[in-house]
Amino acid sequence: MSRVVAIAAGVAAFALLAITALAPPALPVHQAYAGSSVQGTLQVISVPGTATGIRVTRDDYSATSGLQTFEAGTTNRDWAKLVMFLAGFPVSDSNVTVMMRWMRQENGPNDWWNRNNPLNNGWGSGGGSGFGSYDNLVTAAENAAEALHSNSGYSGIVAGFAASAPTAQIEQAIWASPWATSHYANGAHWSYTPVPEYSSPAGTW
To answer: Are 78 and 70 a contacting pair, CB within 8 Å?
Structure first.
């Protein structure tokens, strides 16, 4: 009887030894903390005393809204960009180039701010004619942008600017539109030389 008990005890001891041998090893300390943090336990990170910080110097920067940026300009190029922005068109090089050429055909580059009406736009200006004036160039840009979207005769111009199309396509749409009764002689009076930039006098914006 005692022999049976001894054999049973030996089997139990062997089973316990087998279970212990198959148990997984303890997790490394960093993994143990990571596992406990998932359950809400505070995670502790040790930093060696020899660790040093790194100081990073960054350039200063500032930001302004798009409208404020364009309104802060003083040149014919700035005004052309402002019209594009207010009309919801891409402020692309091709669009700005066409607008500056268009402004030159209306008032000339060295007097582009004439009557605060660079495009001789009649929309919202005094008397409703292209020879009316605006209080300032920002108001003029707002009315030019609104005029383009408000007259179906300008739909080709709008489509060209909206797609930032090739300059020739937009310019042909301008000539074909009712903006100018002369239609710019269908392009015969159109100049393609670079438009020089000029600042308008103080108080025009």
So the answer is: yes
- For 70-109, how does the pLDDT look when each residue is reduced to its tens digit (9 = 90+)? 778 899 999 999 999 999 999 999 999 999 999 999 999 9
Asked whether residue 173 falls in the same domain as residue 106, the answer is yes
Burial of 198 (C-beta count, 10 Å sphere; 0-12/13-18/19+):
middle
| Same domain as 123, residue 83 | yes
The alpha carbon dihedral of 177, 180, 181, 182 has a sign of negative
Range of the domain at 134: 66-187
Does the model's pTM come out above 0.85? no
One domain, residues 117 and 19: no
How many other CB atoms sit within 10 Å of the CB of residue 190? 16
Report the C-alpha gap between 141 and 85 in whole angstroms. Answer: 9
With respect to residue 171, please indicate whether it lies within any of the assigned structural domains: yes
Q: Are 135 and 74 in contact (CB under 8 A)?
A: no
Yes or no: say if 74 and 163 are a contact pair by the CB < 8 Å rule: no
State pLDDT tens for residues 115-172: 999 999 999 987 777 889 999 999 999 999 999 999 999 999 999 999 999 999 999 9
Residues 96 and 82: their CA atoms lie apart, in Å, by: 10
